[in-house]
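Hi R.,

Quick one: here's the Purple acid phosphatase sequence you asked about.
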Amino acid sequence: MVPVHAACVLMSLVPLLVLGVPPIWTQPEQVHLSYPGEPGSMGVTWTTLNKTESVVEYGLMGGRLFDMSAKGDATLFVDSGEEKRKMYIHRVTLTGLKPAATYVYHCGSDEGWSDVFFFTALNDSASFSPRFALYGDLGNENPQSLARLQKETQLGMYDVILHIGDFAYDMHEDNARIGDEFMRQIQSIAAYVPYMTCPGNHEST
Ligand SMILES: [Fe+2]
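And here's the predicted structure, written out as tokens:
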């Protein structure tokens, strides 16, 4: 048996660092939900920097965790800024959800899973009165409503969020890094409740 020294392990990494081998970014980020418009469905969207499978594992809250799974697709997104940054946008649609039931899920692939989140499937009762949070103009700096929205969403106070334009200020700035940071910042809302949007004047080109 040859003892393995920490220094030897570190030295074996040096050539990789010197050669500048790029790291493999397969960790999901920017997780968000949307309603696809079909009863009993929910859309899950996220981003990875390298290509991976697109899988959501889920189950009823209080039941067996992740006893169901659904697959989707990833599309390559190339930012139009001068760096031409590339990332993969993953989309999975869950179907056959029980109305008003709460599900626990994570998304990603065997190369990396997100945190665990939960959502409630849309209620189909005739007496259902959905609760909306509706706003525009939410950016990365000085987002005065963010903490309240995070807490109230996680408390289950809203069925849908409507963000009616003007995101991040602006999504495309700094080769879209401002947009990426915004999407990470709102994950604590948008991974729990459908986050529906429309363009504002800052999104017009
Ligand atoms: Fe605005």
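The helical segments are 6-19, 146-154, 177-185, 187-190.

Cheers,
M.
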